[in-house]
Amino acid sequence: MPVPSAEHPCWQRLASGALTRMKTQHLGTQLMIKRLERSTDAPAAKAREIHAFFSKWERALPHEVQQLSTL
């Protein structure tokens, strides 16, 4: 499953807190989730960062990418 486009509504949901429900064993993803959880950045900035992360690591994180649209 490919990473949804940057305009997909899932990114705003993830940036608004749904990312904490992601099931992952990948340390880099866990660290990003915790860092964004504590961040005071605007949701739009968080959404861009999340999209960039998963676009870059799409091939290494197939299970996480599969969850993006359902969280």
Automatic annotation (TrEMBL):
Per the record, the domain of life is Bacteria
> Which named protein is this?
Uncharacterized protein
Q: Which organism is it from?
A: Pelomonas aquatica
